[in-house]
Amino acid sequence: MSNNLLKGKKGIIFGALDEKSIAWRTALRCHEEGAQLVLSNAPVALRMGEINKLAEAVNAPVIGADVTNMDDLKNLFEKSMEHFGGKIDFVLHSIGMGINVRKGKHYTEMNYEWNSKTLDISSMSLHRVLRTAWDLDALNEWGSVVALTYIAAQRVFPDYNEMADAKALLESVTRSFGYHYGVRNKVRVNTISQSPTKTTAGSGVKGFDGFVSYAEKMSPLGNASADECAQYCVTLFSDYTRMVTMQNLFHDGGFSFTGVTQAVIEQMEK
Hints:
Layout: E1 10-14, H1 22-32, E2 36-40, H2 43-46, H3 51-58, H4 70-84, E3 88-93, H5 99-102, H6 112-136, E4 139-149, H7 163-185, E5 188-194, H8 208-218, H9 226-237, E6 248-251, H10 262-269
Helix pairs in contact: 1-3, 1-9, 4-6, 6-7
């Protein structure tokens, strides 16, 4: 059901990999709510071809961009504004890659060159996106930028590895750039700390299925799905959340503020 919350708004969605991804589900939901979209992903992801199905479904062009390359981002924003015939109202940053995780390096044995790339792709890419929009004056007043994070930025999940550091940096960029963009253009910048979600990217983390089942038992409302996260993104892109900025917003069924649940106690006592 559509409420036309984003009617007339224009946005860029980064990171739609396949039908399981939060960015993919968010693009569909934004389209249902009346938004016009541009889709973007890294060139290597575009070669998989999946995003073209999404582009057809939401009637959006696909513009590739390496988020560590300022020229690519400048091209993306300029072409997006040309396509829209004006400035942009919202951006979803759904980007992350843990190279040490992918290559099986334990946190205590980190390859620092790989880690530098992880931080550049997963965290500083948000700074680059915001900087590009800032330099081009590409975002409308009261625009909204949302990045996806995880509670491992605040708590230890041993196998989340270097991505915990990356998410902590991502949240810091959100606060710091969010301050400056709020003062200059009333643009708000927030992160959503989502439940563990069975996406293609998330499933690459060691012990991920254990994360999911534990979080389900620890969350009074259960885990939030990708579609439910998409709906939350829509509210943050809408005009109903104009005074929310620089926040890390937990969307996790109550997991973040639950010490223990009866279900977990009973499981431990078995």
